[in-house]
Write a structure and sequence with these properties.
The protein is mainly α. It contains seven helices and two strands; from the N terminus they run ααββααααα. β1 and β2 (about 55) form a beta hairpin. α2 runs antiparallel to α3 (about 60-80) and α4 packs antiparallel against α6 (about 110-125).
């Protein structure tokens, strides 16, 4: 392997469906949120035995802690299976983690609180990767695209043409002057139909 070839190109491409599934959603955010919900839900109902001594960690707000823990686990699954609502699930898990501090033994002895807080933040900050077509611009040898638009002749490959950006509508000349009260009923951006 030389220094010019990245190591990722030498890794054989396999049809790893789990890896593709994991990369298209906030996987680690959902996992941390679910793991954080377990101690929050369990600790108010559990007891620890230290030799002959039983340490009961039950609180009067056990039902609230159970609800918070189950909701955090549900939000973690939502991050996995409905990634479109990742921002809502992330913010909701942050709020539930903060509420678990007074309700569930300092948020599951701070372990569940921290895991749910980090998982919620990761989910709110996660963004899907750009499509493969947009990342194909790396083959331009580092030459900026703006030099072609400024009217300069391209030095190589004259048969290539500029591809318009996807999703940008073409601008049309206005047929008549619009005022504040004019409504364009022929497919304007604010049309209802």
């Amino acid at each position: 392997m030389s220094a010019e070839i990245p190591a990722s190109r030498e890794v054989p491409h396999q049809d790893n469906r789990f890896k593709v599934w994991r990369q298209t959603r906030p996987f680690w955010a959902g996992l941390l949120t679910m793991i954080g919900g377990v101690p929050i839900a369990y600790l108010p109902y559990g007891d620890m035995r230290l030799g002959n001594v039983t340490l009961a960690m039950q609180t009067t707000a056990g039902a609230g802690a159970l609800i918070i823990g189950v909701l955090l686990i549900t939000l973690g699954l939502t991050m996995w299976f409905q990634p479109i609502v990742r921002v809502f699930a992330g913010i909701a898990s942050i709020v539930l983690a903060l509420v678990s501090i007074p309700v569930s033994n300092f948020g599951g002895l701070v372990i569940g609180f921290l895991l749910a807080l980090i998982g919620g933040g990761m989910s709110a900050a996660w963004a899907p990767a750009p499509p493969v077509e947009e990342t194909a611009d790396a083959q331009h040898d580092g030459e900026p695209e703006a030099s072609h638009e400024a009217g300069a002749e391209p030095e190589h490959e004259p048969e290539t043409e500029a591809v318009p950006a996807a999703g940008v509508p073409e601008q049309r000349e206005a047929e008549h002057q619009l005022t504040d009260t004019t409504i364009d009923a022929k497919g304007g951006r604010n049309s209802a139909g």
